[in-house]
Design a protein that fits this description.
478 residues; alpha+beta; Alpha-Beta Plaits; 3 domains; eight-stranded mixed sheet; six-stranded antiparallel barrel; 12 helices; rod-shaped
């Protein structure tokens, strides 16, 4: 039934039966109007609720009840507070009319008016009530929708906020067009962070200790990432894959990435304090960053999908991270240039990563600005000689698999994490090697290291060790 054909329930409150019959005749011209008559004013309020009146016609002069007081009762009772009330009285006193309106009447008619006028006023006030209720219903529905949306946004913020900064989530919720998940090219910075020697360490710990170690490591790292506006794309064991510039654009993504990396290295002090308190070993982390264009979007299916990025620049960030040892932040030239003039460089070297054409310069970052919290740990200043030189064998590795013949060599000195090695043969910079000590009397002696520099003429190498056996670490500590 449409609103224009719905019945209009009119309640007439008048103690005179003859008035009721007269009003019924006047309203009979409109079939939609259903008239209900109540002669006892003491039952008027209950009757209005009972018949669900849409308009009330109210006399003022009735036995035992003051008509003006009854008007006020309608307005103070929630079921009838909004129902239009038309005073239908024989009194034409302006003061009485004013008081009726003051008590809450919507209209005032001197009885009895002409039929067409009474019908028109009843229908007008009925439509007003209908419109008022529809408006209230619309506002209520809107308020409910807002509450449901707020709950949904709160859930999104709580769940998505575990992976990105709350500000990033808020920007996505405020501007859904700010994130494209179907696939787009996006200029950003990719950071790869990896705990050094985790596999060896985890093999020597109980399962609950491994999880405690990982949580000690990831919690402060994630806090730092969020503080710098990064998006934690993935956690793969001890490896962290972080984006700066996605899912929302970030014009200073390179600077944020470098600053975050330096802050993460400083946060490793907290990690190792927690490890010491829990009886766990000290750990170190290497970080690599590269900036460039990638493809970003949802990857997966209707059942399960994940927002991520792909492309050669992602792979290059992983390659750069692979050149690091503990405590280092390595970046590409692109990232260093875009991060700002106050980024301080400690060293650089050229490599030719697998799958990439030409040489590629990798830069070790020493700090950024004058902030002490963005200062990389300084290496020892002098080389410690190894006397007599320690005979070792170098085994090249390619993608974690041994390749080529073992190469005899000797360790002549040490400078922090760098080993000064003489082999008589040049090795490619950036390659991973296994350093083994033949016939070690104190158990298996081996180190994994990266080739930092290689002299073509003398065969002098600088190897930066990344992991080692217990015996090798004991030798390094001595």
């Amino acid at each position: 039934m449409s609103a224009d054909t719905a019945p209009v329930h009119v309640l007439l409150v008048d103690d005179q039966r003859i008035v009721g019959e007269a009003v019924r005749r006047l309203l009979s011209a409109e079939p939609r109007i259903v008239l209900h008559v109540e002669q006892d004013p003491r039952r008027a309020l209950a009757r209005a609720v009972e018949v669900q009146a849409t308009v009330i016609l109210q006399d003022l002069i009735m036995p035992e009840v003051d008509g003006l007081d009854l008007v006020l009762e309608y307005r103070q009772s929630p079921p009838t507070a909004e129902v239009p009330l038309v005073v239908l009285s024989s009194r034409e006193d302006p003061v009485v009319k004013a008081e009726a309106f003051a008590r809450g009447a919507n209209d005032y008619l001197v009885k009895l008016p002409a039929g067409p006028e009474l019908v028109a006023r009843v229908l007008y006030h009925s439509r007003a009530l209908r419109d008022h209720r529809e408006r209230d219903a619309a506002f209520a529905a809107l308020e409910l929708s807002k509450q449901q949306l707020a709950k949904s946004n709160e859930l999104i913020l709580r769940l998505f906020g575990r992976y990105v900064d709350d500000d990033v989530v808020s920007r996505i919720l405020e501007d859904p067009d700010g994130i494209t998940v179907d696939g787009e090219r996006r200029d950003l910075s990719v950071m790869m962070a990896d705990m050094r020697g985790f596999t060896r360490v985890s093999d020597s710990l109980a399962p609950e200790q491994v999880i405690r170690l990982l949580n000690n490591y990831t919690r402060p790292m994630i806090d730092t990432i969020v503080a710098w506006g990064g998006t934690l794309d993935n956690i793969i064991g001890d490896g962290l894959f972080i984006l700066f510039g996605a899912p929302t654009s970030m014009p200073d993504h390179a600077r944020r990435a470098v600053g975050c990396a330096l802050a993460m290295q400083r946060a490793m002090d907290e990690v190792n304090r927690r490890n010491a308190a829990d009886g766990l070993p000290r750990v170190e982390m290497g970080i690599g960053i590269h900036s460039g264009e990638v493809v970003a979007g949802n990857i997966g299916s209707e059942i399960r999908a994940k927002y991520s990025v792909v492309g050669s620049n992602v792979n290059l960030a992983a390659r750069i991270q692979g050149f690091t040892s503990g405590g280092q932040v390595f970046v590409s030239e692109q990232t260093c240039r875009r991060a700002g003039a106050d980024v301080r460089v400690r060293s650089s070297f050229e490599v030719q990563p697998k799958g990439f054409r030409g040489v590629f310069r990798v830069i070790e970052v020493a700090g950024m600005g004058d902030e002490p919290d963005l200062e990389a740990m300084a290496p020892p200043e002098s080389v410690v000689p190894v006397d007599p030189p320690l005979p070792v064998v170098l085994q090249m590795y390619e993608d974690k698999v041994a390749s080529g013949e073992p190469l005899p060599a000797q360790i002549d000195g040490r400078h922090g994490r760098d080993l000064m090695v003489r082999s008589g043969q040049r090795l490619p910079v950036g390659k991973e090697v296994r350093v083994e000590r033949p016939e070690a009397g104190d158990g298996v002696w081996s180190l994994f290291a990266l080739v930092v520099s290689s002299d073509d003429t003398t065969g002098a190498l600088v190897l930066r060790w990344t992991d080692g056996s217990v015996a090798a670490r004991r030798w390094l500590d001595s």
